[in-house]
């Protein structure tokens, strides 16, 4: 979802600015500000801790500074390892300096789930390279499951347990990747513009890669604009769900989607409580889940109507563009560069709202009201 070729139309300085913005966007403004506070020896104020608590989805302010340090360390280590692997893959093709630059840029872009590439075709030219595909997939997954889950996985050997949040985020992520892989593989296997003419290993690589990158990252090894409408709609769903909380990705988040499914299943079974992994889910979280999904759907619907009216493109392409912007994914069927000024403004607003979250934006704009002392009579309404 770019209007200019990052590798060709930007100077080295412009690419460096983009890279810095990718890193800041992936880590989050509060984590970056905490890092700078460390560097200059400044104390973290209570107000900053409260803002960090909200941005990292924490239940208390205890240990937030230590968590920020872990986030920075994890990010540095993962990106260095990813860049090292990519460097050894690309040094056979490019000069050592160019290979290093490409490796660092793409490692940061992949882990931060940004999707920016210095290659004009994203990484379609490497769809048959197992190591490059696997490196990108691992970086994207690690960036998308959330820093809190990464920390728990790191400490799993010592603690031997995972929180309910980590279990749900990992389970939903795995299910979505598998479902996406299977559907993309079978739908696109007969499509001459995507998988049909590829070898069997390349079909597997391509299907897995697109299933992983669709929810968060925005890279592609297959031509998105040539995919079947059924595949595009599947990718739209994956982009809308997005990554996990406290991660570098967008969307409504995997745990939000998981809680919605659990809530529906519990209602169908006539259960008053939502249970998973031998734990009860707090009922207080359900209104927030429904609010996030309702506001997100509302945003997507409104922006799709506006973009359809302004541009007049095929509906599936317009919907794809809007959801990709909302989920901060970056995939496109190829219409981004041809959008009018009004269309680009709509996409920018959608990206901005999707990144900070519709609920966060709504809460910041709506003034809090004092609790009402009057309670009105209760009455039932028919639904369904």
TrEMBL record:
<keyword id="KW-0472">Membrane</keyword>
<dbReference type="InterPro" id="IPR003445">
    <property type="entry name" value="Cat_transpt"/>
</dbReference>
<keyword id="KW-0813">Transport</keyword>
<feature type="transmembrane region" description="Helical">
    <location>
        <begin position="70"/>
        <end position="93"/>
    </location>
</feature>
<dbReference type="Pfam" id="PF02386">
    <property type="entry name" value="TrkH"/>
</dbReference>
<feature type="transmembrane region" description="Helical">
    <location>
        <begin position="168"/>
        <end position="187"/>
    </location>
</feature>
<keyword id="KW-1003">Cell membrane</keyword>
<keyword id="KW-0812">Transmembrane</keyword>
<dbReference type="GO" id="GO:0030001">
    <property type="term" value="P:metal ion transport"/>
</dbReference>
<feature type="transmembrane region" description="Helical">
    <location>
        <begin position="12"/>
        <end position="40"/>
    </location>
</feature>
<feature type="transmembrane region" description="Helical">
    <location>
        <begin position="250"/>
        <end position="268"/>
    </location>
</feature>
<keyword id="KW-0406">Ion transport</keyword>
<dbReference type="GO" id="GO:0005886">
    <property type="term" value="C:plasma membrane"/>
</dbReference>
<protein>
    <submittedName>
        <fullName>Uncharacterized protein</fullName>
    </submittedName>
</protein>
<feature type="transmembrane region" description="Helical">
    <location>
        <begin position="224"/>
        <end position="244"/>
    </location>
</feature>
<feature type="transmembrane region" description="Helical">
    <location>
        <begin position="99"/>
        <end position="119"/>
    </location>
</feature>
<feature type="transmembrane region" description="Helical">
    <location>
        <begin position="131"/>
        <end position="156"/>
    </location>
</feature>
<dbReference type="GO" id="GO:0008324">
    <property type="term" value="F:monoatomic cation transmembrane transporter activity"/>
</dbReference>
<keyword id="KW-1133">Transmembrane helix</keyword>
<feature type="transmembrane region" description="Helical">
    <location>
        <begin position="289"/>
        <end position="310"/>
    </location>
</feature>
């Amino acid at each position: 979802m770019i209007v200019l070729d990052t590798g060709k139309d930007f100077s080295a300085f412009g690419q460096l600015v983009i890279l810095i913005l990718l890193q800041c966007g992936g880590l989050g403004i509060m984590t970056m500000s905490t890092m700078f506070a460390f560097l200059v020896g400044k104390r973290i104020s209570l107000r900053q801790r409260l803002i960090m608590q909200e941005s990292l989805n924490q239940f208390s302010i205890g240990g937030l500074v230590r968590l920020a340090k872990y986030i920075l360390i994890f990010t540095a280590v993962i990106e260095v390892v990813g860049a090292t692997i990519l460097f050894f893959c690309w040094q056979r093709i490019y000069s050592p300096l160019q290979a290093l630059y490409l490796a660092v840029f793409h490692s940061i872009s992949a882990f931060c789930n940004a999707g920016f590439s210095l290659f004009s075709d994203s990484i379609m030219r490497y769809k048959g390279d197992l190591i490059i595909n696997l490196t990108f997939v691992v970086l994207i997954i690690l960036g998308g499951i959330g820093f809190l889950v990464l920390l728990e996985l790191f400490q799993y050997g010592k603690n031997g347990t995972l929180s309910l949040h980590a279990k749900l985020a990992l389970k939903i992520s795995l299910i979505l990747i598998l479902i996406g892989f299977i559907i993309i593989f079978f739908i696109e296997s007969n499509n001459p513009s995507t998988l049909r003419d590829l070898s069997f290993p390349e079909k597997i690589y391509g299907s897995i890669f697109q299933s992983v990158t669709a929810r968060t990252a925005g890279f592609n090894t297959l031509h998105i604009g040539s995919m079947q409408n059924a595949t595009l709609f599947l990718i739209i769903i994956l982009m809308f769900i997005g990554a996990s909380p406290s991660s570098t990705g967008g969307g409504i988040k995997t745990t939000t989607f998981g809680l919605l499914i659990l809530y529906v299943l519990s209602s169908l079974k006539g259960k008053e409580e939502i249970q998973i992994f031998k734990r009860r889910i707090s009922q207080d979280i359900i209104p927030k889940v429904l609010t996030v999904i309702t506001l997100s759907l509302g945003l997507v619907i409104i922006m799709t109507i506006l973009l359809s009216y302004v541009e007049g493109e095929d509906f599936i392409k317009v919907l794809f563009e809007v959801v990709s912007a909302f989920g901060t994914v970056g995939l496109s069927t190829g219409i981004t560069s041809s959008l009018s000024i009004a269309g680009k403004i709509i996409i920018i607003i959608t990206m901005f709202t999707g990144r900070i979250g519709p609920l966060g934006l709504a809460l910041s704009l709506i003034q809090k009201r004092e609790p009402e002392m009057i309670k009105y009579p209760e009455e039932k309404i028919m639904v369904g």
